[in-house]
Amino acid sequence: MDQLTVKVLRKTQEAQDIASFELARVDGGPLPAFSAGSHIDVQIPGGLTRQYSLCNDDQESHRYRIAVLRDAASRGGSQGMHAQVQEGDVLTISTPRNHFPLVRAERTLLLAGGIGVTPLLCMAQRLATLSADFELHYCARSAERTAFRAEIAAAPWAQRVHFHFDDGDAAQKLDAARLLATPAAGTHVYVCGPAGFIDHVVGTAKAQGWDQANVHLEYFGAAPQDTSGDGSFTVRIASSGQSVTVAKDQSVVQALLAHGIEIMTSCEQGVCGTCVTRVLEGECEHRDLYFTDAEKAANDQFTPCCSRAKSAVLVLDL
């Protein structure tokens, strides 16, 4: 994918443990256009690459804005952004991609959990520009941990936003069953946030009879996997016939890299799709959050950063 060199124009503490970064081209030129729901890959000092949703107005071409939650369980990405990236620094990013596009609908419900507000903030801005019918429900642990709260309160569409705080009284907490009680063919639901939050909303929508095609989601991170039953298996490279053993405590990506075969990765959790690889033979054990159930059932591609094999051998199109 194409890469861009950008400068950090502004770093802002948006809430407790959340910082935003405003990025612009080093040469001052316009940035490539993007649509609501898009994300970019950011190369973080130390060699890691992580994905962050764009949360500014999608009609802007002079800047990209991202927001990063400092995760106590960080594998280096969020800690690196908070501790090492400062105003004036130069970073390498990808051009925007969109796996979470906004579609036209009679009505749109946006449900954000924590830092999951970032793509939905961009969507809200877009829907407001279109004078579309929408609501944004923003759930956070507390007001102090709610990024962009003042910005949203000052927006012309602030009356369409409902805040829900975990530490608040029961009456103001999100009641997903009530909100989604009446499925409507012309209403689309977008949900983003921690895996537990998304699973709750999606599960509620399913139980209430919502059409799966009207419920759109984007995970920011995968839930922990139980790996106690993992065993070893073999991957074979179709082009060369080379076989590589994947140990029980190794990912396919790690095993291949040890033999000089590199697959590009980003999130390393099966969320982003950067490492998707074609499978020619064998049965996959999908552990990603990227593919739909139908795509997993097709068994013709997988995410080697986290997924494994049910069969003894997987033949990969490498």
UniProtKB/TrEMBL annotation:
Residues 233-318 form the 2Fe-2S ferredoxin-type domain. It comes from the Bacteria. This is Vanillate O-demethylase oxidoreductase. Residues 1-103 form the FAD-binding FR-type domain. Its cofactor is FMN. CDD domains: fer2, PDR_like. Coiled coil: none annotated. It comes from Pseudorhodoferax aquiterrae.
